[in-house]
Amino acid sequence: MNAELPDILSWRKGSSAQPVDWEKLRNDFPILQRQVNGHPLAYLDNAASAQKPWQVKEAEQALYDQYYANVHRGVHTLSQEGTNAFEEARAWVASFINAPEKEEVIFTKGTTDGINLLAYTFGLDYLKPGDEILLTGMEHHANIVPWQLAARRTGAVIKVVPVLDNGTLDLESFDKLLSEKTKLLSMVWVSNSLGTINPVDYMVPKAKSLGVPVLLDAAQAAPHMAIDVQALDIDFLVFSAHKVIGPTGFGVLYGKRSWLDMLPPFMGGGDMIDQVRFEETTFNALPHKFEAGTPHISGAIGFCAALKYLAQIGMDRVAAREQELGELCRTKLREAFPKLRFIGEATERVAVVSFLLGEAHPYDVGFILDKEGVAVRTGHHCCQPLMDRFRVPGTVRASFAFYNTKSEIDQLIAALAKAQKMLLP
Ligand code: PMP
Fold this sequence. Notes:
By secondary structure, this protein is an alpha/beta fold. The protein has 2 domains: about 25-45 and about 315-425, Aspartate Aminotransferase, domain 1 (Alpha-Beta Complex), CATH 3.90.1150.10; about 60-310, Type I PLP-dependent aspartate aminotransferase-like (Major domain) (Aspartate Aminotransferase, domain 2, 3-Layer(aba) Sandwich), CATH 3.40.640.10. It has helices at about 10-15, 20-25, 55-65, 75-95, 110-125, 145-155, 170-175, 200-210, 230, 255-260, 295-315, 315-335, 360-370, 385-390, 405-425; strands at about 35, 40, 40-45, 105-110, 130-135, 155-160, 180-190, 215, 235-240, 250-255, 275, 280-285, 340, 350-355, 375, 375-380, 395-400. The strands form 5 sheets. The chain has a 7-stranded mixed beta sheet, with helices on both faces. A 4-stranded antiparallel beta sheet has the order 13-14-17-16, covered by helices on one side. The mean pLDDT is about 95. It binds 4'-deoxy-4'-aminopyridoxal-5'-phosphate (PMP). 4'-deoxy-4'-aminopyridoxal-5'-phosphate binds near residues 110, 188, 217, 220 and 240.
């Protein structure tokens, strides 16, 4: 791999030895300066999508202003420069997740797209009637529905690892559910609704010992931690750039070469072919085999800038900062609101705080918070089976990024006090 790219340790520690000035860094995110309903914006909806620093937009602007052309096709200078930048992004992603080869990094539209790619290739080609796909009870719909569609067409069966009251997985059940019938373990690494960090260090080796391939949904892990696909020994991993301070409509599927070489293509079209004849078509080498059509060029360029930004800070510092904010938020909520009930209290967790305020409906709470400039998520968070499990219609979810502040937590508490006054007896 390119010697200039950070290695896994540098990703953790960051390239800048200077302590991070978290307040100053907020200036890189112009949107954080705006007012909402007459209040400073407190953006606490980062698990849905993160804000972007100007460096990401500047990188995309430079592409369009200076070297925009289609990639992988032209011999002319602009196309060459565009292709180089596009492939540089792939090398940066490979470095970010410690993939052994950059060809194992497939660019997608996002997490959903990556899982569907696998459901339509691995799913349709490798699943037979009675085979089992093992999911968990805290999956996002994006990691349920594609497998249901594949199961419907192949006769495979979906099994689900239950969730305990504290928002962790029932590992005893996991041990029992994992069997020689299991043909795939596809699971969320970090829950978007609960904040739980699932024990992949326990679960992945268990699956691998039975020869079961593993797909990790890292949509909520990638924004918060350095990822090492080699140490985890997983077969597939997916995430979305927009949650990692990068552009929308862009994402990553990592797959082990042995799998990606074996799987059939997903979409057909330009770029993914070797030779096309009406009688027969042969396919391009990795990663192009899975990247039909003109890709999201600006997405790759913008995401590369996002990764360079994070590499300076270091993911350990990102994680520590967010951890501090998340735990402070939980403590202050607990102190201020005796009627507040957390949904998800795993000890291993990221700064995603899901709760209900007495009997108040989450939407009503969210509406009042918005009037106070506080942006939180309300609803089922695309995890309806999990909401059913907790017998709630949804939750209020405050989710933090490294650019959030302690005063935003105070703003949340003050706004919630108003909501409580208006909504609870
Ligand atoms: N999985 C998880 C855990 C998520 O949080 C999300 C986004 N909320 C997704 C999958 C889907 O991501 P996207 O909409 O970017 O494809």
